[in-house]
Structure formats: C-alpha cells, structure tokens
Amino acid sequence: MKKKTGMKRRTFGALTAGAVIAAGGTTVTRTAQAADKILKFVQNGNMPVLDPIWTTAYVTRTHGYFIYDTLFSMDANNEVKPQMVDKYDVSADKTLWTFTLRDGLEWHDGTPVTSEDCIPSIKRWGARDAMGLKLMDFVSEFKAVDAKTFTMKLKEPYGLVLESLGKPSSNVPFIMPKKIAETDPFKQIDSQMGSGPFKYINAESKPGEKHVYVKNAKYKPRSEAPSGLSGGKVVKVDRVEIIEMPDPQQQVNAIIAGEIDLIEQPPHDLIPIMKKEKSLQMIDWNPLGQQFIFRMNHVVAPFNNPKIRQAALLCIRQEDYLKATVGEPEFYKVSSAAFIGGTPNAFEAPNGLFIKPDFEKSKALLKEAGYDGTPIVLMQSTTLPVLTNLAPVTKALLEQGGFKVDMQTMDWGTVITRRTKKEPANQGGWNIFHTFTVAADILNPISNTYMVAQGDKSWFGWPTDPEMEKIRDTYSKETDPAKAKQLALAVQNRAIETAQYGWIGQWYGPGAARTAIKGWLKAPVPVMWNIEKA
Amino acid sequence: MLDFIARRLIAIIPVLAVVAVFVFLMLRLTPGDPAAVIAGDNATSDQIAMIREKLGLTLPIWQQFAIWMGDILQGNFGESYFFKKTVAELIAQRVEPTLALAICTMVLALSVALPLGVIAAYKQGSFLDRFVMGVSVLGFSVPSFVIGYCLIYVFAIELGWVPVQGYTRIGVDFGGFIEHMILPSITLGIIYVALVARITRASVLEVLNEDYIRTARAKGLSNRVVLMRHALRNAAVPILTVIGIGVALLIGGAVVTESVFGLPGLGRLTVEAVLSRDFPTIQTVILLFSVVYVVVNLLIDISYTLFDPRIRY
C-alpha cells in the first residue's frame, strides 16, 4: 500500500476546491486540534444510548468507564480490588459491610463524591442487573454514616458482595451523582456528569457521528499501577473521540489511511489484511474473550422434553462453530467449561461433551423421547457477522444427530423480538437461537444469566429447575472460596444434566491500533486510560 | 399558477396521510420490538415488558396512531427511543450531510450528464455516442456500494488524495467539506449521470429532427447555439421530468452512499433507526422524504413553464 501524507491530500483538496479552501478558519481549526493528543476510537457498534444502567449494550458500558468510576473493579488476574473505595470492612457475622471512600473524589463539576451518591447508584443498578438484583435480595438496609462512609446491612451472609460491586461488564455498578442516580431505572438519565477520568462533551458530541471526551484534569488516580480495570486510571491523551463507523470494511480502510487510531474488534476475516500493514498492530486487549451460546426454548415442544435437549447437546462440536465463525485457531479456544476455561470456576464437562459429538446416542435419545420429526425452528441472525455462521453449523450437526431443522434467516432486531415469544415454534415462536457473551459476564453461577432456572424470570428459553436454583442459592451464600468452587461445579453439572443450554466455544477478537499507540490495557472492556499516542 | 400551486400543496395532505398510515402499520405489523433492542442481550422478558409499557407500546395500535398523529399536528414529531433527543433535533443534526450530498451530486451529475447527452445525440452513431451510452448502461448496472468501495480503494487508500470516510461540516472547514464530498458525490452521481445522459440524448435526438432545427441551421446559427438554445431547451421537459423522478434514486442512493462513506446523514439515520426499531425516527424521516419528493416534483412541474411557454397552469 502506498502511504499518503496530509500535505498530499491537502493539496488535492485545495486544487479541487479552489482558493476559497485556504480560508483562515480552516487553518485555525486544524492547527488547534493538532496541538492536542487525540485518540480516535471505533467501537463495535453505534452508541445511541448513554445510560449504562438503562441498557446492557457493551458500547454504552464502555462509555460508562470513560466518565464514571466504580467502588471496586476487577484486575488483570480477575480479582476484585478497591477503586473509589479506600477501605472496607465486614462484620464477624458477615452481614454488615462498611465502605469508606478515598480522598479526592470529585464530580466533573468539582463537588465532592459522597456516600449519599453511592447508595442510590447501587440501588438503581440493583434494580436492573442480574447480579444487582441478587445482591438486593440480601440487602436489608443502606446507611450513610458520614460523607465518606456508608454501610450495607445484609439479611444473611452473601458470598458475592465484592464480585457484585466490582462487576466488570454489563451492567456495571457505576457511581453517579445522587440526583441522577435517583432516576427511574427504566428511564434514561439525561446528564453525563460522573467522577471518572474523562468528561463527556455534550456540545461537541453528535450521536451517529462521534462522541467526544476530554481528560478530566482533576481526576485523582489511585497510586497503584493499572491492572485490568483496577489501579491508577492515568489518562495520557487530551481527548478521545469515539467515531461511529458501523461498517467493518470502512473501519479497516480508515485505520490504514490513518484517520482513526483504534478499532475495538475488527471482524476476523479482515485481520489478515491488517496484519500485512506495517503501520498497524493487533492487540489482544481482552484475554478472557467471549463465549458463544446455544439457547433452547424449554417451554415449547420439542425442547420441553429434557431428553430431546440432551440429544441436541450431544450433537455439539465446538470446533465446527469456531472454525466457521472465527477461522484462525489463534483466535479461539475449545473448552467445555461453562464458566470460561482458565478461570477459577473452570471445569471441563464429562464424556467429551461439546468437544466430540455422539450422533448415535443423540438418535437413540430422540427415539426414546418419541421425537416426531417436527422441524426445529432455528433463528439465524445475519446482521451481526460474528453470529451469522453459527446457525448453519447447528443445522448441519443437529441433522446428523437425527433432528429435522428449519433454519429461518432474519436480522438481529427480529431475533431479539421473536425470542421473547412463548408460542409454539410453528406459530411465530422458536426453538433455538445463538448469541455470544463477554466472558467476564459469566465467570460464576450468579453472574451467568444463562444458568438462571426460574421459569418466567429466567433469560429467554425460560428453564425451570428448582434444584438448580437451590444450588445457585447455596453458592451465593457460601463465603468459603473452596466450597464455592465445588458448588460452581455442581451448577455446571446440573446444567449439563438438564441440558439447560449449550456453551459452544470461546473466542477472542483482538483490537487493531496504529503502531503509534502504546499502553492498551488488557481488560474485559476496552478502556482508554493508560494509552499513549506517540 | 397560484391556484395550481395551492391545489398541488393541498394534494400533498392525502399523500402524506397515506404514507403515515402505511409506515405506521408496516412498523407495527412487521417483526421487531424496540423494547427488546433497548433492553439489550442480557435483559429478561419482564424487563422488556416494563420498557415496552414505558414506551407506550402496550397501547392498542389505533391509540398509538392517534397519539402520534395528534402530536404531529401540533408540530411534535416525538422523541427517539434511543437518542434521548427529539426526532426534530436528530433530523436537524443529520440533514446537512444529506442535503450537501444531494446538492453536490446533482450539480456534478447534471454538469456531466447534460453535455454528454447532447454530444451523444449530436454525434449519433459515432464511437463517442456508443461510448457514452455504454458507460451509462454500466452506471445503471453496477451497484453504488461497489463503485464506492472501488473509488475508496483507488483514491483514498492507494493514492491518498481524499479521506476514506467521514464528514466535515461546511461551516467548520470548507476544504475538509469538499474533500469529504468528492467520492460520495461521484458514487451517487454515476447512476444519475447515466439516467440523465440517456434521456437527454433521446430527447435531443427527437428535437434535432424537427423543422425548426433545420431552419435554425439554414439561418447559419452555430452548432453550439442550435444545440444549446434550440435543441436542449425544447428537449428540457422530459429531462426535467426524469430529474424529478431521479430524486427518489437520490434518496435511496443516499442511504447506501452514506453508509459506505460514513456520512452522518439522514440516510444512515434511517438505517440505524430501522435496525434498532426506533419507530418515531423512522416514521418522521420517511414522512420527510415523502414531502421532499412531492415538493421537488411540484417545483419540476412549475419549471416546465420556463422552458415551454405552451404549458400553462
């Protein structure tokens, strides 16, 4: 590829536009911007919503990390560390938690962050997030002791207090000013004031075009070195612009041309093009990666029959999915662990489940269950490239295992609408769809939404299993890490026994950056602090 | 004339009413739930149901329609489900790139297509004529996104003459504005050039066989004057008609072109709104496009009188 210069383009523009182009205002604007260090970053999708509690969209979660701070956060070793909190204490009976904020925390308008702000922020998050809802089941009372200290009284011990408050991904318990945090959790907030390392510049941001953030000069980072989402959030640029550019090919063209600095996660099929570019580097910023999900509808035939669900899981071969969607083995990992291979709760599934299919056993189970050959309605989304090839693989595998499959193609917007329907599959309902989740969201049986088995209160597919809920509940109350780990294994085993859902492969999507970029932290979220631009 | 304009303006009302009913019903009857999109992938059915209720989507369809129409009649186009802005604000923010693209495309296309069409007619049967018509067939046949990506590869990536994507507002940096408009205007203009060049050639050819052209030539007028003053002017009515019809092409093409070049205009807003099922935005943008189409064609009808004095309203 030939490399261009600003002068070359400038000359062309000038020739084209004539002398008028050389108007003074033009020069002033460009010179002023050139003096600042500006990072131009493209996320995986557009960001129309700016309330990270109102939506679980990952782009909005990332925005949250720009402008808000969290009480706790997860480090690179997946351990929860204090962030806004200076010190915390738990009573001997493990029911009274006391949190003290560190010095120097200020909102963007210069007013201090107080415990009165933290309480409604946790409550608002607790009304929307799965882990927040669970935590709130245990909380009997919050109390502001003084400006910097507050307590959280539990009805009984809960083993995941820190994991909840340090939850890394959607929804993240961001701390907002009291007045904003008191907004109805089901209504969007209308202010972007936080206490985080960046300030959102509303006047310059144009959703659909770009979002502008400037360094919060008054932010006082922690003294520790940055690690994952924890430690010192030291901003090393003056300004970050999130450029809204939904087309992946356009993103790649733009980064090659030097018009943007970072892409969150370009599609795998474009990585070889970028690897050839000397001006670019690929950065594995999210070492935990993502996991593909195979979700069955438990409330309609035939998957209301556990044997037929088990037959379906017996057909899964993760490598087929990963090759079809990700391609290069360096970007995927075959792992039958529900709570992500390589993490504390990782346990491989027995009998090669998810790794090596057993089509004969699947056929035998179908016969035993009386499967009548009614086609399985499989929803295929074609608007999210990473999901598009999953459904054809499922169709091929299930057919080898004795199923008949009716794969229906639609956009993601239709999938997420149709998956809410509980009607029989041939009356507008569904039997199977796929999605993916950030691995950091599913590291334990409580944060893992797909493990919930409370019928109508469960995630789509609505599994009901009192035994599963009993184990999850015991897990949530267990404060001994060794015992908790065994309970996590029990949850995974129960999910396999009842064929609650399928986890069909872990994958990684590196980010792309210009070589002038240094310091992109390894974390489950693409964060812009610590990044330098030469 | 004023009567004609008044009648045509009044006729817009039923057109918009039909469009409004059609768009509203289409959005409600096709699959897609904005509440599910808002709630995100981790939401439960209960959370989606609560959001649906907050958005008023649980009301009967007729009631939702009545509320929307009532608001529109008061000049309130509603609030986007996602952007936390009124639809009017969103449109105001996005209209400049689309308008700029449409004007640049129109200027570029007409300044190329009209001379090409006239020359092709004048040189009927020549290599030039065949070349122009061949290129115009190509212009029709190749999808604009293919043209767009080819232009980006050559002029933005290989040669580095223009930016790959994005938009600079005209008031911020005129040079940047021109740089960002060149490739999108060419991309969108090619189909328009093809359309207008072909109709220009056909119309001028027809006129060139008229007696008054022979008379003009017999009077010793130059080819330029015969072609531009006598032939093109008399061929203008069908050309204008096609230009008016072509506005629909521009609107449709803007959706694709804005996506390929990352222009934050109404076309991209429409795509984003459709994918996220942002009903108030989709409804208003489509109504706006309908108004533009009808008004442009009204202006075209009025302009006939400038070229053909026999036409009176």
The name of the CATH architecture of the largest domain in chain A is Roll
Q: Could you give the distance between the termini of chain A?
A: 22 Å
CATH superfamily of chain B: MetI-like
Which consecutive residue ranges of chain B, at least 5 long each, have pLDDT under 50?
A: none
Give the full name of the CATH homologous superfamily of the largest domain in chain A: Dipeptide-binding Protein, Domain 3
SS strand fraction of chain B? under 5%
Indicate the overall shape of chain A: globular
Distance between the termini of chain B: 5 Å
For the report, how would you describe the main beta sheet of chain B?
Answer: none
The oligomeric status of these chains comes to heterodimer
CATH architecture of chain B: Orthogonal Bundle
Structural class of chain A: alpha+beta
Order of helices and strands of chain B: HHHHHHHHHHHHH
What is the percentage of strand-forming residues of chain A? Answer: 15-25%
Count every helix of chain A, treating DSSP H or I runs of 4 or more residues as helices. Answer: 17
Roughly what is the average pLDDT of chain A, rounded to an integer?
91
Radius of gyration of chain A (Å): 25 Å
- Structurally, the number of domains of chain B stands at 1
Write down how many β-strands of chain B occur, each being a DSSP E stretch of 2 or more residues.
Answer: 0
Query: Which CATH class of the largest domain in chain A is shown?
Result: Alpha Beta
Structure, described:
The complex is a heterodimer of chains A (534) and B (313). Chain A has 534 residues and is an alpha+beta fold. Chain A folds into three domains: 37-46 and 191-286 and 510-533, D-Maltodextrin-Binding Protein, domain 2; 58-181, Dipeptide-binding Protein, domain 1, CATH 3.90.76.10; 290-507, Dipeptide-binding Protein, Domain 3 (Dipeptide-binding Protein, domain 3, Roll). Helices cover 29% and strands 19% of the residues of chain A. Chain A has 17 helices and 23 strands. Chain A has helices at 6-17, 24-35, 58-67, 115-126, 130-138, 161-165, 178-181, 248-256, 271-275, 306-314, 318-325, 359-369, 385-388, 390-400, 412-418, 466-477, 481-497, and strands at residues 38-42, 69-70, 72-74, 80-82, 85-90, 96-101, 139-144, 149-154, 174-175, 198-200, 210-215, 239-243, 262-263, 280-283, 290-296, 332-333, 376-381, 405-410, 432-438, 502-507, 511-514, 517-518, 532-533. Chain A has a seven-stranded mixed sheet with strand order 10-11-12-1-13-21-14. A four-stranded antiparallel sheet of chain A has the order 5-6-8-7. By secondary structure, chain B is mostly helical. Chain B has one domain: MetI-like fold, CATH 1.10.3720. The longest helix of chain B has 36 residues, at 87-122. The mean pLDDT of chain B is 88. Classes of the chains: A alpha+beta (534), B mainly alpha (313). Chains A and B meet through α1, α2, α8 and α15 of A and α2, α3, α5, α7 and α8 of B.
